[in-house]
């Protein structure tokens, strides 16, 4: 690995560290955390609703075909 590549890697790592620090402690970090929690909850709700819907549809199809 050349000096140029090492330097670029180090600069990229420092920039990533700064971006992470800003996202955790910077302006809007609380809003971002809240938005991430809401998105997670919505995703879980959609997954559960999909599973329940699929289970209900399967039960309906099984009961309908057995008549």
* Overall SS class: mainly alpha
**Roughly how many Å apart are the termini?**
71 Å
As a percent range, the share of strand residues is under 5%
Query: Mean of the pLDDT scores?
Result: 90
Kindly give the count of domains. Answer: 1
- What is the CA-atom radius of gyration, in angstroms? 24 Å
Give the low-pLDDT segments: none
Q: Helix segment count?
A: 2
- Which term fits the overall shape? elongated
Key features of this structure:
67 residues; mainly alpha; elongated
Write the layout of secondary structure elements.
Elements (H helix, E strand, L loop, with lengths): L2 H23 L3 H38 L1
How would you portray this structure in words?
The chain has 67 residues and is mainly alpha-helical. The protein has one domain (3-66). Helix content is 91%, strand content 0%. The protein has two helices and no strands. It has helices at 3-25, 29-66. The longest helix has 38 residues, at 29-66. The relative contact order is 0.05.
What is the gist of this entry?
It is built from two helices and no strands. It has 67 residues and is mainly alpha-helical. The mean pLDDT is 90.
